[in-house]
Amino acid sequence: MLHRLRSVLARPGRDRLTGTVEVDETYFGGEEPGLRGGRQKGKKILVGVAVELREP
Predict the structure, then answer these.
(1) pLDDT tens digits for 35-55?
(2) Which of 10, 11, 40, 42 has the CB geometry, 3.0–4.6 Å to 32, for a possible disulfide?
């Protein structure tokens, strides 16, 4: 997972995130009949977000 995250954040032409960075993940998708728990296989996809915090 970390390898995939780094490959997306370090694409050429993009500035790297610096300073304080917050990272979070969530699953996106609808409920599937017969499946229990947030990480069960189904039509859900994992979404990761990284945000650089800056002073105003």
Answers:
(1) 666 556 667 788 888 889 988
(2) 42
